[in-house]
Design goal:
This protein has two domains: 98 residues, Phosphorylase Kinase, domain 1; 216 residues, Aminoglycoside 3'-phosphotransferase, Chain: A, domain 2. 39% of the residues lie in helices and 19% in strands. It contains eleven helices and 13 strands. The protein has a six-stranded antiparallel sheet with strand order 1-2-3-4-6-5. The longest helix has 19 residues.
Length: 331
């Protein structure tokens, strides 16, 4: 079975130090760098003393996010599948830095299952997309059980330390800031102006977001969701990487889940929304168009990153172009 994308590499010094701190008597048989994920660095390790591999995760982009992740694990609904935690060292000042060790979880990344290079022996794409969409919608509804007093970014204790005045204002302000900066330069004048007109025309889609203070995963996309075929249907086996979690509208997670629609059938989007609604979630009439608009915050953020490759820039610009005409799709 295909697993998370991985490359063979020697264990770097920081990872070796973390492994030594957790299991000083270990004998390392193999190490594989897991290439998915931009916020942290992860390795799949095979140790002589353990039957199953482990994942060693080094928190590099935001070391404090490990403390937030640990706090979230204590309050997440039991229906949310998580990789078992074996050890955590959340202090970024330690010589190892912040790191955690998780049990390996079997599963296919959802983006691989729904992508153009999916294995040939899987069921028909529409059926697969429907089953995965249904389970992702169910899990997104489970996350709605976790609420906060305001929308905004969370600190290590899960307090809303940086509340948004309104979610609409936060979204529009961030997009404008990026378009005035490096993201706008990379888009070019013509596409930048088209995106500005798109936002100005459709900003009212964001009005229904106010008052929604639910836990948002923040990166609810295929590479962070593993799936297995169990009891005759495909189910999510693990939800990974909670570093970007915040308080806000669940539609932010719809935005990332639906980003790669060229690799997904319409059945996936419908199954995601209908399952979410069937399990108690509430969506506005134009939920799909709203999710598209919200995802502009992510795309703008990507284009703001220094050192972004030319290929990645072209990929993101293509997504901007595909988002300019909001869909009228509804549940």
């Amino acid at each position: 079975m295909s697993e998370r994308r991985q490359t063979h590499a020697p264990l770097p010094q920081r990872a070796a130090s973390a492994l030594e701190a957790w299991a000083p008597d270990h004998r390392l048989l193999s190490a594989q760098h897991l290439t998915a994920g931009l916020a942290n660095t992860s390795f799949k390790l095979t140790l002589a003393a353990r039957q199953r591999p482990v994942v060693l995760k080094l928190y590099t982009r935001d070391p404090a996010s490990l403390g937030r992740t640990l706090a979230l694990r204590r309050i997440l609904p039991k229906d949310i599948p998580l990789p078992p935690l074996l050890h955590a060292q959340p202090d970024p000042a330690a010589h190892t830095g912040a790191f955690a060790v998780f049990d390996w979880v079997d599963g296919w990344p959802v983006d691989h299952l729904l992508g153009p290079d999916r294995p040939d022996d899987l069921p028909c794409p529409d059926r697969l997309a429907t089953e995965l969409g249904k389970d992702m919608g169910r899990l997104r509804a489970c996350l709605d059980q976790v609420g906060f007093d305001a929308s905004g970014f969370l600190d290590h204790s899960l307090a809303v330390a940086d509340p948004f005045k309104t979610q609409k204002e936060a979204v529009l302000g961030y997009i404008a800031q990026c378009l005035d900066g490096l993201a706008g330069q990379r888009l070019g004048e013509t596409l930048r102006q088209e995106v500005e007109r798109y936002v100005q025309t459709h900003h009212a889609l964001l009005d229904p977001l106010e008052g929604q203070h639910r836990l948002v995963h923040g990166d609810y996309k295929g590479c962070n969701l593993l799936a297995l075929h169990r009891q005759g249907q495909w189910r999510i086996s693990a939800v990974l990487d909670w570093e970007f979690a915040f308080s806000g509208s669940p539609l932010f997670d719809f935005a990332t889940a639906l980003r790669r629609t060229t690799h997904q059938s319409a059945d996936f989007a419908q199954a995601l929304a209908q399952s979410y609604s069937a399990h108690g979630g509430m969506l506005p009439t134009r939920w799909f168009a709203t999710a598209r608009l919200l995802d502009l915050t992510n795309l703008c953020g990507f284009l703001q990153r220094p050192g972004l490759s030319a290929d990645r820039q072209r990929d993101i610009k293509a997504l901007f172009q595909s988002y300019r005409t909001p869909s009228t799709q509804a549940v």
